Structure formats: structure tokens, C-alpha cells
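Try this one yourself first.
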């Protein structure tokens, strides 16, 4: 066993998995869904959250793992605290399946759960702590004029958790690194979850905008606030908007408005709902033609 990964277990798990039906010979507790991934735990790997990302070519997955480790290293260099993690892949025919393992954090300590149990003053304090974590990323990126290397971050509240008083950032499986303005991630991997006929359209209309937003300090804060609609705490947005604008004013960044947050949320919900429906179409097509379908899909994502 290396780090958090038991490769023999992963190979057996993958061989006995049917993603299309969402079943395995191992009892899975699904913790969440990503755009192309599923996060789960199994009794045989207690204390570890596993993220499965399929459909790599073997040479692609090794480059992705290297970038993942670099991204985590850069986030730590910027001053963020991360849970322990590891990454490995298994082969299935001519495809590689990436598994990212991470120290399992208690669900009640993930911040989108915490915000339903705390008072307004505590919420403001937690929100300000998250803004200061995001600030570390942009302080780091200020040096990119010299180094040429920038990092992006998905600052949604559900990507942070509290542990022993520390605030941890744990959504590191999409390594957002730009070098001299060029995204280092192979975004083609994400497009493969959509039907082949739609990939060019998705790439042309949405992909660049989605990648770029995580490198824009103001947009990351807009996204953080807009996500509170999904988390059923839109009541807190006006209060936190004041906190955010006061914070951003230190950088000379233009104020965010409530109307802007609403508009952003509706557009974002549309993009991801469309993407999920395209993926369901892809699954249906695979079923019709008797092809293996590699992705776990939620039937519905609440927005």
C-alpha cells in the first residue's frame, strides 16, 4: 500500500463495477457527484474518500496525476491547508481509470453543512475566513509575472471543511494550473462525458469560460455567493455581500451586486443542467448500442 491507495483493491473494485447501473460487488456509500466523477467510500477502505474519474488514455492519466500533485503542492505553497491525498490509476482495456483518494472528512464539518447550524455572526466569520483563503491564491498569483505559473480555485463553500479549528480546502482533483497564460489541464477528458456529436459545441460555447472563471478573483467570489442559492441559504446573501464588497474594495475590485449574483446563478445552473442532460443522452445511446458506459450519473442535481 502506497500512501492512501491500495492498488490491488482498486483493480478488484474496478473489475467488479458497473457504472451504468451504479452498482458494485462492494457496498458503496456515494458522497457526491462531480461533473465527470463520483465520490464514494467503501467499508473495505474505511476513513478514505475515493473519487473515480474515467476515460483517460494511459499517457494522459500519468500527466494528469503529475499535474494533480503539482497543483496540491502549489496550493500548499500559497498557504492553504489540504487533507492527505493520493492518486493512482487502473487499466480497463485500452482506457485508464483515475482514482484520487483523500482523507475522509466528517460530513457535518463540511462548510455547506456547517452553515445550516450556525448564527449569522458565525456565518460572517466563516465566510471571511474563506475569503482570506482565496486571497492567498491571488497573493500567490501576483508572483506569476516572474514565475509564469498561476493557480485557480473553486471557492464554493462546499469545498471547505473544518478540522480541529483549521479550515481545509479539499476540492483538488481538477488541477487548475496556468503556465504563461496556458491552461495545463487536458480539458478533453471532461468533454468525453458528452455525446461525441455535441463535444465541439460544448467546447466552443462553454469550456474556455468555465476554465477561466477560476482564475478571476472577483468571479470566484461571485460563484461562492451564487452557490448559496443551491445550498438553500440565499437569505444570507445580502449580509455576506456586504462582507465580500468590503473585502474586495481593499484590492480596488468593483462591487458585486445581488442582481449580478442571481444572473450568474441562473446561467451556471443552465450550463450544468444542460451538461447533465447531454450525459444522460450519451448513457442512453450507449445502452441502445450495447456499449459500456463509464460514468456514474445523479438522476437530478438540486439547484
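Now uncover the answer:
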Amino acid at each position: 500500500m502506497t500512501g492512501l491507495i491500495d492498488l490491488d483493491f482498486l483493480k478488484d473494485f474496478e473489475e467488479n463495477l458497473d457504472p451504468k447501473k451504479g452498482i458494485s460487488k462492494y457496498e458503496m456509500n456515494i458522497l457526491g457527484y462531480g461533473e465527470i466523477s463520483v465520490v464514494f467510500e467503501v467499508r473495505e477502505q474505511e476513513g478514505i474518500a475515493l473519487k473515480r474519474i474515467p476515460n483517460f488514455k494511459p499517457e494522459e492519466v500519468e500527466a494528469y496525476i503529475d499535474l494533480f500533485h503539482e497543483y496540491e503542492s502549489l496550493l500548499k505553497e500559497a498557504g492553504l491547508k489540504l487533507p492527505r491525498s493520493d492518486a493512482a490509476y487502473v487499466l480497463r482495456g485500452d482506457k485508464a481509470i483515475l482514482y484520487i483518494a483523500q482523507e475522509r472528512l466528517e460530513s457535518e464539518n463540511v462548510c455547506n453543512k456547517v452553515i445550516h447550524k450556525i448564527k449569522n455572526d458565525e456565518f460572517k466569520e466563516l465566510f471571511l475566513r474563506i475569503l482570506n483563503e482565496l486571497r492567498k491564491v491571488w497573493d500567490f498569483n501576483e508572483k506569476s509575472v516572474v514565475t509564469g505559473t498561476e493557480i485557480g480555485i473553486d471557492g464554493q463553500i462546499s469545498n471547505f471543511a473544518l478540522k480541529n479549528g483549521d479550515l481545509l480546502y479539499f476540492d483538488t482533483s481538477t488541477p487548475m494550473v496556468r503556465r504563461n497564460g496556458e491552461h495545463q489541464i487536458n480539458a478533453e477528458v471532461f468533454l468525453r462525458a458528452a455525446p461525441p456529436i455535441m463535444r465541439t459545441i460544448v467546447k466552443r460555447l462553454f469550456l474556455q469560460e468555465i476554465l477561466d472563471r477560476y482564475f478571476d478573483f472577483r468571479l470566484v467570489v461571485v460563484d461562492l455567493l451564487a452557490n448559496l442559492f443551491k445550498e438553500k441559504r440565499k437569505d444570507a446573501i445580502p449580509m455576506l455581500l456586504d462582507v465580500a464588497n468590503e473585502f474586495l474594495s481593499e484590492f480596488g475590485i468593483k462591487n458585486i451586486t445581488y442582481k449580478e449574483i442571481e444572473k450568474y446563478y441562473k446561467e451556471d445552473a443552465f450550463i450544468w443542467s444542460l451538461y447533465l442532460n447531454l450525459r444522460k443522452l450519451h448513457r442512453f445511446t450507449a445502452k441502445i448500442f450495447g456499449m459500456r458506459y463509464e460514468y456514474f450519473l445523479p438522476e437530478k442535481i438540486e439547484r
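Discussion: The longest strand covers residues 48-56. The mean pLDDT is 91.
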